[in-house]
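Following the same procedure, the fold was encoded as tokens, giving this record:
***
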Amino acid sequence: MSAKNSSKNDPMSGRRNSQKDTLRKVLHYIRRYWLFLGLSLILAAVTVVLTLYVPVLTGEAVDLILGPGQVDFAGVFSIGVTIAVMVAATALAQWLMNVCNNRITYSVIRDIRGEAFRRIQILPLKYIDGHNSGDIVSRVIADVDQFADGLLMGFTQLFSGVLTIVGTLFFMFSIDGWIALVVVCITPVSLLVASFIAGRTFSMFKLQSETRGEQTALIDEMIGGQKVVQAFGYEKKAMERFDEINDRLEKCSLRAIFFSSLTNPCTRFVNSLVYTGVGLTGALAAVSGRLSVGQLSSFLSYANQYTKPFNEISGVVTELQNALACAARIFELIEEEPQTPDDADAAELTDVRGQVEIDHVDFRYRPEVPLIENLNLSVRPGERVALVGPTGCGKTTIINLLMRFYDVDAGEIRVDGVPVRRATRRSLRRNFGMVLQDTWLKAGTIRENIAYAKPDATMEEVVEAAKLAHAHGFIRRLPQGYDTVIAEDGGNISQGQKQLLCIARVMLCLPPMLILDEATSSIDTRTELKIQEAFARMMEGRTSFIVAHRLSTIREADVILVMRDGRIIEQGRHEELLEKGGFYAALYNSQFEQ
């Protein structure tokens, strides 16, 4: 078997390559802050040199204390002052180094989190539809936080740890090369132990991060649908699902933590061997007169300082495994294929009249499941088009294609003769106003929600739009009126009131084309009649697409398209379709049977 094929089949090799790729991407972000990185390295070097020079001074002070009545107090005091100054300088350098490290870390995670959020804005809708929102949130929030912790620990301890090891060896070799050689011979054992354990923790931490994302997704789902959960008595089943995921999280977390926690005691054991070796060989050298007592004390101090970074670095390596595992999940999101970008010469739709043509369009959400095939439609400016048919026949899909939330598989959709693929998405969507059955409101004031698409709207314009939507009355009764803050997704107002606010939002903008997808489904009949009047005024001269299950709401449409299995099977005005006695007539009569 070739080496290439061997590496492909080796899971350990795959994990190592994955880690290298992730580390390379992290370094790409860090490189932007090379100035702070360079300053941090210089300050780390200053900190280490000053810290390591103190044992030399301590040894010299010990050698000035020869016995009773043989103490050079002036020399000891002078050395003590020098040590105090060096300790103060070390503290200042360490503080500045931590400031630099914090700046690098939080700048990097700000950039990564910002890029992840920007990527979410341009991801195709099929990615959002195909992934749990809780998992996406977990990647952007929890995984980035975990990554920050590991990165900060790496900057804080890794640089100074490596420099301490190098500096300690230099000072030890300057005092006695043979004893320093003993230390160098035992060191690789510690490194081998740390790398062996760390190499096996990456996949465990990645599994832990993925399971945590799954748990976040479930919690987000249960909180969002708590009313439905309680209404259908799903609490026990929800707890069973949560317990099952929680048990898996416990197992993979315990395995990850167990293996990672082996690193520190194992390296401590090896480091104890180092200290013992230095103590024995140093004592023999002192007895033979090759070392002074002060030099021996300096050597023992260096041996102790030499071993500490290995313990710290082993902990850092473990944290970095977790950080890299989390970073890998973040980069998976950042590197997801974005939606097809607008063409460089894409047209800006301006002064739209509202002529829409759907020409031989095919579309499938999943390649193996047919939905819309060979759909043709021509809508004149200002026409009101109603889409009716059984659930799943493709009504909402046509809306998604018109707005270019999804691109057609074949055929073409044109607005005023311009293919929507050749127009910018922004200009296309600016010319459509949507009111959907599924309402969405952001956390903020009533005024901010109505003016969502027109932030510079005056208060008078907002109030007028609310009046047209028949929302002004209930808004006036709220504690702070238009300045009342509503919770995320309008949790503290009724479903009908939320829908009225969404209608007011469109009333404020009044674009040349409208999409009303079950726009009055949550509104009482009396208010609906008033809204229908407002809609009638709003739709005058505007191309409108109306999706409705209550067929009484579409009697005045210029053309009704009856759909089934992704095809238009009937079309005409309300009276014409009733006279035909076909599928539409059966649907209509079924709603008014005694």
About this structure: DSSP finds 21 helices and twelve strands in the chain. The chain has two domains: 19-334, 356-591.
